[in-house]
Specification:
By secondary structure, the chain is mainly α. Helix 1 runs parallel beside helix 11 and helix 4 packs across helix 11. The longest helix is centred in the C-terminal third of the chain and has 32 residues. The mean pLDDT is about 90.
């Protein structure tokens, strides 16, 4: 993988990680277009640079992590289903599902769901004053739905926002809970992948991973702030239209 290819993929990751359009799906499609030869390292790169995007959440929402211990408990409960399923299905998912066909189908189906969700939530108000007020059962439900995002193209953000809305959040709260849940989820996914692939990563690979992670971090900070503004003004439907068009194109 060249630094130019790494730059392009990292920018895509930073922009799409917190949007309901599937960052992994976009990176797989970009790999296909650029014809990257080292497929195994490309898969590792796509997972590991998500750490950079995740640290942007910590920066943007730093005060939220110090507000209440309950947010940690709710995030842990929401993380559990994905952590268990991911641990058991990691090899199968990475080997069989990381391909443009799976991504395209997932993008189209998820696009239809987002359009329907937009209509359902247009005037929805939240059951909760703060996101940490969500019940443990509601947090667990979000975690179960997040498991679907292990299929490339589904989108972790889309799945958790969908789960958040149907657990009682309004659009903004669902998006913010999705951002925070990304921290333990992607830390676990990236850490596990690094552990599994450590013997196959060389010194030059480490430089590319650090470079990609930094680019994703910077871009994601702007993407997070922009997404909340866009969501409040336009809702989910435009992301749905975009997903369907992209899925059909590929």
């Amino acid at each position: 993988m060249t630094y130019l290819q790494a730059l392009i993929i990292a920018i895509i990751e930073g922009i799409t990680e917190f949007l309901p359009v599937s960052s992994t799906g976009h990176m797989i499609l970009a790999d296909s277009l650029m014809k990257i030869q080292d497929k195994e390292f490309a898969k590792t790169f796509e997972i590991v640079i998500q750490l950079g995007a995740i640290f942007s959440v910590v920066i943007v929402y730093l005060n939220r992590f110090f507000k209440s211990i309950y947010i940690y408990l709710k995030l842990f409960i929401a993380f559990l289903p994905t952590g268990i399923v991911g641990l058991l299905a990691y090899k199968t998912i990475k080997h069989y599902l990381f391909n443009p066909f799976t991504v395209s189908i997932s993008l189209i189906v998820g696009g239809v769901v987002l359009i329907l969700l937009d209509k359902r939530t247009a005037k929805k108000t939240s059951k909760y004053t703060y996101i940490e007020d969500i019940s443990y059962g509601g947090a667990f439900k979000i975690g179960l739905i997040q498991c679907l995002s292990m299929i490339p193209g589904v989108s972790r953000a889309a799945a958790t926002i969908f789960g958040g809305v149907f657990s009682g959040f309004d659009r903004k709260q669902a998006a913010e809970f999705s951002f925070l849940l990304a921290v333990p989820t992607m830390l676990a996914a990236s850490g596990y992948d690094l552990l599994k692939e450590k013997d196959n990563i060389h010194s030059e690979d480490i430089k590319i991973l650090l470079f990609g992670g930094f680019v994703a971090f910077v871009v994601a900070i702007f993407a997070i702030k922009g997404f909340i503004t866009f969501l409040n003004k336009y809702g989910f439907r435009h992301f749905g239209y975009y997903r369907i068009v992209l899925g059909l194109l590929f």
